Amino acid sequence: MPGEIASRLRSARLGHALMEAVPGAAMEVGRVNGPAVVVGPVGYPGAEVLPCQHRGALAQGLAGGTMAGYVCALGLAGAGGALYLRLLLPPGADLGTGVIAVDDPPRRRLVMATTLGEQHALDAARAAWTVPVPARGSRSGAAHNTALADLEVEARHDPVLHTTALSWTHRPHPAAVTQVDDAVRAAAAACLVEELLLDVQAG
After folding, report:
1. What are the pLDDT digits (tens) for 8-42?
2. CA gap 180, 152 in Å, rounded
3. Which pTM was predicted?
């Protein structure tokens, strides 16, 4: 995969990974002061491009090594300024730093996406986890809060778009929610640092 085109399509690739992982999410892709399209599932208000079509546009751009392939496939080759992408999320879902919250009672999910491979992403996320592992029967401080959260993590790699979606599922116990949110934001930041280091090494 040519490095330059992969880097330029990074936001679109990550946006697509999040859109697929978060129910009710969509994307707006367009040109500043120009045309725009909404990418979303069947039934999403105003959706003009289906996720499978957007995936095809990304694959076309990556395979051809040009932004033109992606832009043309979305019908955005006309007039306008720079290309932009905006993730459309349910209210309150965006926790910042690329972390999205999904309520799925009785559980809650926190989702982020990275261009790292599956194991690399998991390793970076674990390295960012600074909360002590709770001892059996622990009833104090952060360790107890982690136990209350009943936290599980899952990684799903997309070999076509070269992205990995990390998903943390937990019980939204009031004593643990803030701690879990902070830990996942730290994991997202750690993955971004790893991406930047890989870019520097490749350059």
Report:
1. 689 999 999 999 999 999 999 998 888 999 999 99
2. 11
3. 0.85
